[in-house]
Amino acid sequence: MKLLNYILLISLGALLIYASTGLPNRGDADAPMHRDKSLAGSPGAAAHYIRNPYKDANTPNMVTVILADYRGYDTLGEETVILTAGLICYLILRRRKDNVAGKKKKA
Amino acid sequence: MLKYKHNPIIVLVSRAVCPYIMLFGLYIIFHGHYSPGGGFQGGTVLAAALLLMRLAAGSDIAQLQFKRILATPLGSIGVLIYFGTGLLAMLSGGQFLNYQFLPFAGFTAPELRSLGILMVEIGVGLAVMAILVAIYDDLLEGYHPHD
Is residue B1 in a domain? Predict the structure, then answer.
């Protein structure tokens, strides 16, 4: 069982390292992130997020578009964090109650 | 210790107010495209309505409204709705979470993205509501005020 855990972890790490080779280089001026320029002339994705949300997603509220569309991965992670918190509360509190019941039985 | 007393005034007022809080929560979720709001905020308001009934009428009676055992599966379903929306877009030829590839006929690309955002927000709202109620129920696990 422990061996299986190590194999899974190593293969996940290898997958992540392989995926990271597809990312643009650091400071690459041609990366999609740096294509748009803000009013001050500095490159960055924020200018795109402010100019295009209604054209892209037909939604007047640009915060919603950034949260759920441009930054969809981020929100998926946040939701997973909430689910994990709930599951961990379930596990911890359930286990404590079982211990109390076990002590009562012994006494 | 904390002792629960049945108070008819509190129960009656909570029962009257609870559906309106739920309606407001749904409004926050579904109006997130046009005003401040969205899944996280609306889910929290929905959870507040459920927890109000749990506080006012007691956990045992509030099981009639929302069963304890439903909470964790509903949270998982919320996350699966989000993940499934992303996966659906990926299976029909696009990238993960790129909503304009969702396989619904008769919509333009911006409309599909708007629809995808709505599906995702429903998933988030469901998960947040269920998990908040689940944490409250876990904290009260094994507490029986009438013993």
Answer: no
The answer, yes or no, to whether ipTM is higher than 0.85 is yes
The parent domain of residue B39 ranges over 8-139
Quote the pTM value: 0.84
- What is the number of structural domains in chain B? 1
- CA pair distance A80, B127, nearest whole angstrom: 9
Nearest alpha carbon to residue B72 among A95, A88, A28? A88
Q: Using one digit for the tens of pLDDT, what is the confidence trace for B55-107? A: 998 888 888 999 989 999 999 999 999 999 999 999 998 889 999 999 988 89
All residues of chain A having their beta carbon less than 8 Å from the beta carbon of residue B33 are: 59-61, 64
Is B147 among the domain residues? no
Pair B83, A30: CB distance under 8 Å:
no
Judging contacts by C-beta atoms under 8 Å, the chain B residues touching residue A69 are: 99, 113, 116-117
Residue to mutate among A70, A73, A79, A84, with most B CBs inside 10 A, is A79
Counting one residue from chain A and one from chain B, the pairs whose CB atoms sit within 8 A come to: 99
Is residue B86 within 8 Å of A72, Cβ to Cβ? Answer: yes
> What share of chain A has pLDDT > 70, as a percent?
88
The pair of structure tokens assigned to B75 is 């949270």
Structural contact between residues B102 and B88, judged by C-beta atoms closer than 8 angstroms: yes
Kindly state whether residue B3 falls inside one of the protein's structural domains: no
For position B144, what pLDDT does the model report? 67
